[in-house]
Amino acid sequence: MDGDEIRVWVNDKVMIERVYLDSDYQRIELGLEPGFNKVDFEALNQGFSGPNTAQFMIFDDKGSLVSSNQWNLGTGFKATIIIVKE
3-class DSSP state for residue 27? Predict the structure, then answer.
């Protein structure tokens, strides 16, 4: 845990202003619209040792894993995923 922080955007609107990342997974629930949804994870800083690093796992409403990825982002950069809600 080195102080990494992110902001979560959904369809170009801030959904969560600040998330402090640590070594444990955190559950974040996002209300998605039917159709295409763009989810951005913006690196707010690079903690004590850059870059901003994290792994995310996305589950559907039934608990099935939809996507898993990790990033190494500089401050101000975003990791983006498109999720289609049927």
Answer: coil
Tens of pLDDT along 7-50? 999 999 999 999 998 888 888 888 899 999 999 999 998 877 66
Strands 5-10 and 13-20: antiparallel
CA distance 83 to 54: 19
Name residues whose C-beta falls within 8 Å of residue 51's C-beta, 6 or more positions apart in sequence.
43, 72, 73, 74
At 47 the three-state DSSP class reads: coil
Burial class (CB in 10 A: 0-12, 13-18, 19+), 39: buried
Are 31 and 38 contacting, i.e. CB atoms less than 8 angstroms apart? no
SS3 31: coil
